[in-house]
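Notebook entry, structure prediction.
Reason for the run: the old model in the group folder had no record of what sequence produced it. Starting over properly, with the input documented here first.
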Amino acid sequence: MPRPCRVRISAPMAIREKAKKLDRVLKALEKFYSRSVLPEGTDPLERLIFCWLFFTNPVTNARKAVKMLEDENVFGDWNEVRVATQRELEDVFKEARIEDAESLAPRIKTFLQNVFEELDDTALEPLKELKPDKAKKFLASLEGLPSWAITYMLVTLGLDTQVPWDPHTERVGARIRLFDPNAALPQRKKLLRAALQDDDPLRLHHLFVEHGKKTCTEEDPKCPKCPVNKDCEYYLRRGARASKAEAGGNGTKAAKKKG
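New structure, fully documented this time:
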């Protein structure tokens, strides 16, 4: 008797399905949060500082802070920000309602100072002339820069195409099941990038960060209000468990009533 033929999904097909899912997710998140969360302008340093502030603060507050830093009546340019006192920087952040002003101000000042000491300027455009490995090594040597920001800057400078990796991106990607959360980190990064079919990893990064801050939080995520819960395996499993528990509870109550 012939053995039944097993249908196997090829790896390319699996990637195509994940790519379709990710495309739906990104479109839904962009519609839900609006394009205001995406990076603006072409200045690499401006984009980095915005994302640095945006990572832990509302997008409107982050944009206000960046505009204030560049305002001629405040500092005017990034070199003036570098030489400003920590207190002056904190005051600007607090006026823009940046919640963690006391911790961000010294880190950003340290970063700007280190850039100036190495490049004799605060502009990051010269890094575009370096090979990716040298630019990455340079950025990694700068004190104060968050680990995810190294990839962020390389992508901004056109030296990399990977997705910046941070807790929000990892959590959202794992819950949507774009990759196996138990896989090795290099494999998780590779699978996420393979599912992203466009050349804009920063769009994904900004949308996932905003989603992770507001809806897909680490504790008590707002799953019922999530714009992508239909594509989220975490939500589907969570809902199934809740329904099962509720059914079990109702069965117990019914048994008690019969008794």
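Summary: The radius of gyration is 23 Å.
The old model has been moved to the deprecated folder.
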